[in-house]
């Protein structure tokens, strides 16, 4: 099974995923961003884009990597990854379904002011214009499709351990 933690930057996906992994027996964290980083390392580079998710190979490579890891190791993959383009989510979820891999899709949500404050106050990565630029696309995705496709956990007033507990409780872990 895959536990997909979606949401925009600052929602708590990375921190929460590590905590969810500790609560679910036989689970591992797989950050699909690493697939994008691999594509970014190709030289000469692939066509210019502002987001590796726009490269057509990224989505099937995420599906194939997840499938292969699950075939090899079994258990559950906890995947913290922002996907705000509905077409991309449909492609990934359909690809996983073709391999009979069940997906529990969660969105870690926080209000815009909270997200902005978390991004601007990030002491690890520092403030990031790139991350801030995704606040409005996230809000649009949340309004139009994303929140209908997933179980929403509002992290505005939750700690990461509390959010992880909610995910695990929803899974029955």
Describe how the helices and strands are arranged:
Blueprint (H helix, E strand, L loop, with lengths): L1 E5 L6 H11 L3 E3 L3 H8 L17 H16 L2 E5 L5 H13 L4 E7 L2 H9 L8 H4 L2 H10 L6 E4 L5 H12 L2
Parallel strand pairs: 1-3, 1-4, 2-3, 4-5
Helix pairs in contact: 1-8, 3-4
What would the keywords be for this entry?
5-stranded parallel sheet, alpha/beta, single chain, 173 residues, 14% strand, 5 strands
Short summary of the structure?
With 173 residues, the chain is of the alpha/beta class.
Written account of the structure:
This protein has 173 residues and is α/β, with parallel strands linked by helices. It has helices at residues 13-23, 33-40, 58-73, 86-98, 112-120, 129-132, 135-144, 160-171; strands at 2-6, 27-29, 76-80, 103-109, 151-154. A five-stranded parallel β-sheet has the order 2-3-1-4-5, with helices on both faces. Helix 1 (13-23) packs across helix 8 (160-171). The longest helix has 16 residues, at 58-73. The two termini are 13 Å apart. The mean pLDDT is 96.
- Give the radius of gyration: 16 Å
Low-confidence stretches: none
Mean pLDDT reading = 96
**What structural category arises from helix and sheet content?**
alpha/beta
List the total number of helices.
Answer: 8
**% residues in beta strands:** 5-15%
Helix content: 40-55%
Looking across the biggest beta sheet, what order are the strands in?
2-3-1-4-5
Instruction: Report the order of strands and helices.
Output: EHEHHEHEHHHEH
The total of beta strands comes to 5
Shape: globular
User: N-to-C terminal Cα separation, in Å?
Assistant: 13 Å
Instruction: Note the main sheet.
Output: 5 strands, parallel
């Amino acid at each position: 099974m895959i536990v997909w933690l979606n949401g925009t930057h600052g929602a708590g996906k990375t921190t929460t995923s590590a905590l969810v992994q500790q609560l679910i027996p036989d689970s591992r964290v797989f950050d699909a961003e690493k697939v994008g980083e691999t594509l970014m390392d190709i030289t000469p580079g692939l066509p210019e884009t502002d987001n590796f998710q726009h490269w057509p190979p990224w989505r099937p490579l995420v599906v194939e990597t997840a499938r292969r890891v699950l075939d090899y190791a079994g258990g559950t993959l906890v995947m913290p990854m922002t996907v705000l383009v509905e077409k991309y989510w449909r492609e990934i979820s359909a690809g996983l379904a073709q391999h009979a891999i069940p997906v529990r899709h969660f969105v870690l949500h926080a209000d815009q002011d909270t997200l902005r404050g978390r991004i601007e106050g990030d002491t690890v990565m520092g403030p990031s214009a790139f991350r801030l630029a995704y606040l409005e696309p996230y809000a649009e995705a949340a309004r139009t499709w994303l929140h209908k496709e997933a179980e929403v956990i509002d992290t505005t007033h939750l700690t990461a351990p509390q959010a992880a507990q909610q995910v695990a409780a929803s899974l029955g872990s």
